Write the C-alpha cells for this entry.
Amino acid sequence: MYDLIGIALVAIVVVSIFLITLALFMSRVSLNRNVRLAGFFANILDYFYLPIKNIFDRYSETEKLEGWMVSLKNMAHISGFKKTKHRLMLAPHCMRALDCPAASTKFGIECISCGKCVFSKMKDDAQRFNYTLYIVAGSSYIRHIIKKESADGALLLACNYELNKVMRSLKRKNIKTYGVPLLNDGCYATEIDYDNLIAVMEDVSE
C-alpha cells in the first residue's frame, strides 16, 4: 500500500515538473509567436506561481517570469477580451506629473486634464475607444472600482509584476484582462509606449 502511494507521489511530482517546464517554455515562446493552448499553460503557471517565483528569485530574474506570464495571458485572453462590452482602463499613478494638481479619491486620481502629463491625452483616447479610465495607486483602489463598475473587461497598464498580479486577481472576478507593460519600472516618472497602446486598443476593438 505504501509503495503504491510512494509511486503515485513520485509520478505526480514528475508530471508536475514536466508541465511546469513545458509551460515556462511556451510562455517564453509566446513573446515571438502564437502558442496553442495558451490558457492551459497560463493556468499551470498560475497554480505553481509561488514555487516558480522562488526559483527565479534565486537563479534568474523574476521580471522575466512576469513578462513571460503576461505575454502568455494576453495571448490566451485576447479573443475573450474582444467580446467584452464594458471596459475599464486601469493605469498606475506613477505615470502622472510630480506636480499633478488632481485630487485623490477611493477610486483613484481624478484627472483634470491639466496637460502636465500623458493622462490628459490618455483620458481622451480612452473615451474615444469606449474605456473608462481610472488612475490607481494600488490594488485597494481596484477593489473599490470593481464594486462600482459592472465591467467585463479591463485593459491594464503597469509593470509586468503588477500586470500579472492584477490579472490573477481579476480572473477570480470573471473580468477579461489584457496587459500593456510600461517602458520602465519605478514609483514615479514611468512611461508607456503610447503608439503601442493605441495599436492595442485598435486591435482589440476589431
Summary: The chain has two domains: 1-83, 84-206. Residues 1-83 form one domain. The first strand starts at residue 87 and ends at 92.
